[in-house]
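Hi Y.,

Following your request, here is the sequence exactly as I used it, all 97 residues.
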Amino acid sequence: HRLELVWADGGYTGPLVEHCLTVLALVLSIVKRSDDMRGFVVLPKRWMVERLFAHLMRTRRLARDYERRTTSAEAMIYWSMILLMTRRLARPHPARA
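Below is the corresponding structure, written out as tokens. Let me know if you'd prefer a different format.
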């Protein structure tokens, strides 16, 4: 396995943390919002997940559950990420000094 640490929202607290550690050998780190925060606040590590979901939903096919098999859904995720990476690689980079 390549995954060792997984970040999760505060809604995933409870027995899932222990289950991930014992059964899956993963450390589940809960990113919680502090009680004294008011309004919208960017939570640490949470923006990474939201950005990934935004990239995946850009392809629009992943916005709905069109896929009957998990392998085709996985292929759509690969396709979406390949599209993102090729666009990033094709961007002109500023010259380094």
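The chain has two domains: 1-31, 42-91.

Thanks again,
Q.
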